[in-house]
Design a protein that fits this description.
The chain contains 7 helices and 10 strands. It is of the alpha+beta class. Strand 6 and strand 7 form a beta hairpin. The two termini are about 15 Å apart.
Length: about 250
């Protein structure tokens, strides 16, 4: 039996939300090269905005450049994340005003049916398949790590004053390791990359209900952001949707 060819379409939107004066999220993608990235910056003044933009630009630049035939895509993607970390860290070291800036990162890279998700921090990737909505990534945050160790319940994590503490980020140290998850895409899959401004406001059930709507990808992004803003909009909100089509 012939294997169905998988092609991808994508759309993304970002919004500063209702409480923040600026938007420190950034995203970028290239359907042609199969690269999709969302970053959520942190730092004083405009530092977070700078960190997230540097990281997105560097990852896209590396992954849309000519690749050596013998280099595997996950290997190249890992090196791109390391380069982005170095770029943010070096920029912060050169400018005292940017000292301590960093960014979370979640990326999806695809090669036909094969897909890899990489993440650092608490920006997340999900997959919707035949109505089932599942989180792919694991947060690098203090409370989520406590939950995984059984030291805190999920409800306690949601109420914790430490929920904003990130344990891993791009640019805050001279070296970082991204988690990497390998998946196989099927026709009809929808991948969602997002900043925590979306997942802090909406439950998985809320998000899944919107993703199931018979709408284009951009309209679903818009609905997700509108729902997050209506629920409070306490942070910047970014949503990037990628659909595998036949």
């Amino acid at each position: 039996m012939a294997t169905a060819v998988v092609r991808y379409t994508a759309a993304a939107l970002t919004d500063r939300g209702r409480k923040r004066p600026t938007n420190e999220d950034a995203f970028g993608f290239s359907v042609e090269h199969g690269v999709y990235v969302v970053c959520d910056g942190m730092g004083g003044a405009a530092a977070g905005e700078i960190a997230s933009s540097i990281a997105v630009d560097e990852i896209l630049r590396r992954l849309t450049a000519h690749r050596e035939p013998e280099a595997s895509l996950p290997e190249v993607a890992g090196k791109a994340v390391s380069a982005a970390n170095e770029a943010v860290f070096t920029r912060a070291q050169r400018n005292q005003r940017l000292n301590g800036m960093g960014t979370t990162m979640v990326a999806l890279v695809v090669e036909e049916r094969r897909a890899w998700v990489l993440n650092v921090g608490d920006s997340r990737a999900y997959r919707m398949r035949e109505g089932r909505f599942e989180q792919v990534t694991l947060d690098h945050s203090l409370v989520e790590e406590q939950v995984r160790m059984g030291r805190m319940s999920q409800s306690e994590a949601l109420r914790s004053p430490l929920r904003n503490v990130i344990t891993r980020a791009l640019g805050t140290q001279n070296y970082v390791t991204a988690d990497c998850f390998e998946l196989e895409a099927e026709v009809g899959d929808v991948f969602m990359l997002c900043s925590d401004g979306l997942t802090r406001e909406l439950s998985d059930e809320d998000i899944a209900a919107i993703l199931k709507c018979n709408l284009g990808l951009e309209d679903r992004c818009a609905r997700l952001i509108a729902a997050a803003k209506q629920a409070g909009g306490h942070d910047n909100i970014t949503c990037l949707l990628v659909q595998a089509a036949g």
